[in-house]
Amino acid sequence: FQPKLLKGKRVLVTAGPTFEPIDPVRGITNLSSGKMGYAVARAAYEAGAEVTLVSGPTALATPYGVRRIGIQTAQQMHDIVMAQMAAQSGTDIFVAVAAVADWRVANASSQKLKKNADGSAPQLVFEQNPDILATVAALPKPPYCVGFAAESENLLQYGEAKRIRKNVPLLVGNIGHDTFGKDDNQLVLFDAGGHTELARAGKQELARQLIAAIATRLGK
Ligand code: C5P
């Protein structure tokens, strides 16, 4: 049983990897499974929230009760999230869990790339994707924004710095960079008051603890 800590709240969650095309059949992605983001969406629904999940390609089933919008690219994720932000119904809480590609291929081909007879390889040119979390956090009336960070070292130092740089009240750090695809995780919560470590546990259990932590902070 989970108390209805977010009853009546509208929650938007991003999850999974993004996929950046190189040509119609190839692309660049990452190893995010989407498990943590889906667990957050499920926990928010269980806590009584109305939940929208904007997800990159994953193998996961849509959590019961959650509205899922599937996207491929970071730009599509950005556009859907910003449309949700502009919607009349409003968003109370934004949890950015997605592993968004930092760059897209600027010279993606509309036709499948062919091997060159001379053996030369195609040259990809990258351009930066929008930072969805930072864009939402910079809105005149932002929802309560929660970011995630996967760092391979100096998490305590980088976590707090990232929280301030993205200008979000709560940032969640993954301890260790081996979380991708795993069923359990270890998290540190960074807020203006400092940091709190959550003991290693399953992603669904951690998502419930995170939702409780968000509800506590919203209530203050
Ligand atoms: O800067 P970094 O990618 O480590 O930040 C991670 C956090 O920012 C995550 O919450 C992620 O979902 C979000 N993010 C985003 N848009 C991007 C890059 C990251 O929303 N383009």
TrEMBL record:
One of its GO terms (molecular function) is phosphopantothenate--cysteine ligase activity. Keywords: Decarboxylase, Flavoprotein, FMN, Ligase, Lyase, Magnesium, Metal-binding, Multifunctional enzyme. Residues 6-216 form the DNA/pantothenate metabolism flavoprotein C-terminal domain. GO terms for cellular component: phosphopantothenoylcysteine decarboxylase complex. It catalyses: (R)-4'-phosphopantothenate + L-cysteine + CTP = N-[(R)-4-phosphopantothenoyl]-L-cysteine + CMP + diphosphate + H(+); N-[(R)-4-phosphopantothenoyl]-L-cysteine + H(+) = (R)-4'-phosphopantetheine + CO2. Residues 11-220 are annotated as: Phosphopantothenate--cysteine ligase. Its EC number is 4.1.1.36, 6.3.2.5. In the N-terminal section; belongs to the HFCD (homo-oligomeric flavin containing Cys decarboxylase) superfamily. This is Coenzyme A biosynthesis bifunctional protein CoaBC. It comes from Collimonas pratensis. The lineage of its organism: Bacteria, Pseudomonadati, Pseudomonadota, Betaproteobacteria, Burkholderiales. The gene is coaBC.
